[in-house]
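TA notes. Do not distribute before section.
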Amino acid sequence: RRGRTTYYKHGANPPSHKASEGKEGFTLIEIIVAVSIFALITLAIVNIMVIVMRTQGTITRLQAIQDNARFSLELIAKEMRTGINYKIGHVCDTDPSSLSEIHFDSTSGKRVYYLDPGPSSKIYRYATTTGPDITNPDQCANGTNSQFNEFTGDQVFVERLPFRVPARGPPDTR
């Protein structure tokens, strides 16, 4: 600094180096506390993100299950609305009061069978144009050589699906 002259305003004191001694940074304790608080906040945010991602996965799976069930029931309803010659059968279930089977002729010319899931929790469907009608319990869904196919997805469980065909009365002439 030789040859350089520093001028200060009248009454202004030159900066004191003693005033800033020991205050040029953070202490070790302050740094540890700051890092600990930052780590806790980061862990809380990561935990919330993990919970949100798990919840989103669960919701996505439940929505897929619900979509599968809705699609299955809509297809059954469409086939039944457009079908003819409805019959409630009791071939696979020996209890005639259970209303667990229905078969009818679809508009595509197929004989379609639907079975109430019973203990399997699955809806079964069999459709044929040339195959035999289901006439004995050995041809049912619980047999090993079954002609019935599972109609609902693996994660769809149906407790009951009773079938009823309303009696048709005389046409209304009003």
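Switch to the second chain here.
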Amino acid sequence: VLSLDKVNINYIKLAAAEPRPYMIDSDIKPVTCSTAFGSPSGHSSACVLISLVLILDIFHGKTMAYAKPTYYRTCTYIIAIILGLYWSISIPFTRYLLGAHSLDQIVFGSTLGVFEALVLHFVVRDNLMCHIDMVLTEQNLISPEQVATARERHVKYFQPESEKIGVSFVISKL
């Protein structure tokens, strides 16, 4: 996850070539800072990416039989959301206060982190899990019935009513 973020950040920094605030204004004295370009903020992107991926995967990505969606009412879910928001706000804010990044660099990095987390969770995760199931089935480590049962439970508990028909159709074709 972080390697994908680091690659994206470095390519965009080279393409944008936007200087850091202390490179433009001599009144800004950074505590410690890189001499590379500043946009987008890698710290902002990474902290938003990690907190959002963890919350999405832990609370919204379970496919086990016992994982019924009752987490919205739990104290653990609320605490996780608060800690994720705190982390996603405090790290970019400190980067701004330290003079390492300007506001637009922080917003760009945070937005990139949200985009990467959503793509990883909603596009990559399910395809990766299907591939792992297929490999484990081919190696006879799990049975095809176990895979089908887990997928049916996932559709039953976590998909909206309007999508259940389409998803079950796609699963039956796999």
